[in-house]
């Protein structure tokens, strides 16, 4: 792990920082717009809500993952920072862009959807009877499972996992909503909750939706990088695998006579 402040990224055009910030803004705008819109007409259908959030994340990571990493979530950014994969400056600016995009999306919904259909615009809150500590626990594990998945599918030593990364991350978001949306609204994402809280002026228990996912994300990041990271594949193993694959292809093509 290597940690750095990242001040050079502010002036270095090759860092792609400003392009990445725009991608994070657009990405979470799409997430909040479509997923929170689904919440306004779900009528208690938790499967619909779960799919809306999961599919939105799937689409966004597929679209902008190559630009910014497709964080669209301060918990993911915090995990990346804890693992030394992003600089402090980049992490802070990512969170600002994520929050701004979430506010912009929910504001757009506020304008487009008639007031009688708002239904809270997807605002997250604790279920009656759920204590602050219980809510914090739920959100901790939501952040944990999401960031654990992100690190697992983005492991440099598991290149094949990258092909399914967007789908795996999107399904993990759906899993989190299917599991505990009833109790906390399954934020998993501090910026997503911030956007609706800001527009609806609903700040009850809001700190839980920052502390829980971020703490869970940091723990998952450190756990994966220290204990779960895949072993480095040796050059010899790579050469053997390539040779074996070539032999198999020649056999399939009928160009290699089998003895």
Summarize the structure.
This protein is mainly alpha-helical and 259 residues long. Helix content is 67%, strand content 0%. The protein contains 9 helices and no strands.
How many DSSP helices?
A: 9
In the CATH classification, which architecture of the largest domain applies? Up-down Bundle
Largest sheet: none
The poorly predicted ranges are: none
Q: Would you list the SSEs in sequence order as H and E?
A: HHHHHHHHH
Overall number of structural domains: 2
InterPro entries: Aquaporin-like, Aquaporin_transptr, MIP
Keywords: Membrane, Transmembrane, Transmembrane helix, Transport
GO molecular function: channel activity
Protein name: Aquaporin
What does this structure look like?
One of its GO terms (molecular function) is channel activity. It comes from Anopheles stephensi (Indo-Pakistan malaria mosquito). Belongs to the MIP/aquaporin (TC 1.A.8) family. The structure is a single chain. This protein has 259 residues and is an all-alpha fold. The chain contains nine helices and no strands. The protein has two domains: 222 residues, Up-down Bundle (Glycerol uptake facilitator protein), CATH 1.20.1080.10; 26 residues. Helix 1 runs antiparallel to helix 2, helix 4 crosses helix 7 and helix 5 packs antiparallel against helix 6. The longest helix is centred in the middle third of the chain and has 25 residues. The termini are far apart. The mean pLDDT is 91.
